[in-house]
Model the fold of this input.
Amino acid sequence: MLDESANAWKREMGNGWLVLVTSLFGIAVGAASLLFYSIGVFFEPLQHEFGWNRGQISGALIYLTLGFVVSGPIVGWLIDKHGARLVALWSMPMLALTMFGLGNLGNSLTVFFALFFAAGCFGGGTTPIVYTRVVNANFDRSRGLALGIVLAGTGIAALVLPPTMAAAIGWSGWRAGFLLLAIAAALAWPLVLFGFHGVEGANASRAQNAKGTDRAAALKSRVFWTISIGFIAVATAISGLVVHLVPLLRDAGMSLLQAAAIASFIGVGVILGRILVGGLDD
Done:
C-alpha cells in the first residue's frame, strides 16, 4: 500500500510538472503578488513626487482589495463556464495595462486609487483561484505539496520584487518600476497559453466534472465561514507588516536598497512555510 501510494505520488509529480511551473510563475506575477509586495518601495518616491502621505499611498491597497472582492465571484463563475486558462489569458493583458497606467500617473490621488481598483477587478483572473483550480484537478495523493509549491509563488514575489523595484527606481525612477511590473504581469501569458493547453481543470468542459458542495450549501457551512474569517484575520495582520516594512526601515536610516533587501527575507519564510505545510498536509 505504501509503495502504491509512493508510486502515485511520483506519477502525479512527474506528469504535472508543467502545471506546477506554470502555476508557480503565474501566481508570482499575478495581481495579488505584484502590487502587494512592491508598494512599500514606492512610498518615498511618490511622497516626493506628489506630496502624498503614507496613509494615502497605502490606502490604495484598500481599493485593490475591493477590486478583488468585486471580481472574485465573477472570476469563479467564469472559470466554471469558460475554464481557468481562458480567464487567465484575458486577465493578464488587462492587469499589465493597469500597471502601465500607474507608470504614466499624474498628480491625481483619485486616479491612483482607481487604477488599483481596476487592477483588482481586471486582474482577478491572475490570482491563485485560477491556478489552484488546475492544480486540484491534476493532483490527488500529492495535492498538499503541489498547492504548497505553487502558492510559494507569492514568496518568490516577496523575495524578488523589493530589491528589483528598488534597483529600478534607483536607476530610472518610480515610473520605470511600474512599467517593469507591467512587463512582469505579461510574462506568464505564453506560459499559460501552452502550459495549460489541454490540461485537466483548465478547460470548462472538464471543470464541470469537479465534485464538491454546491454554492448554497457552502455559504451555509460553518467550515466555509471559518476558513473565510481565518483568511481575513491573517491577511490583515500580514499586510500591515509587509506594506510598511520598507518605509519603517528607511526611517531607521537604511538606504532604499538595504531596506528592500531586508524586506525580501519575508519571501524566504513564505516559500519554506508553504512547501513545508503543503507536504505535511499530504
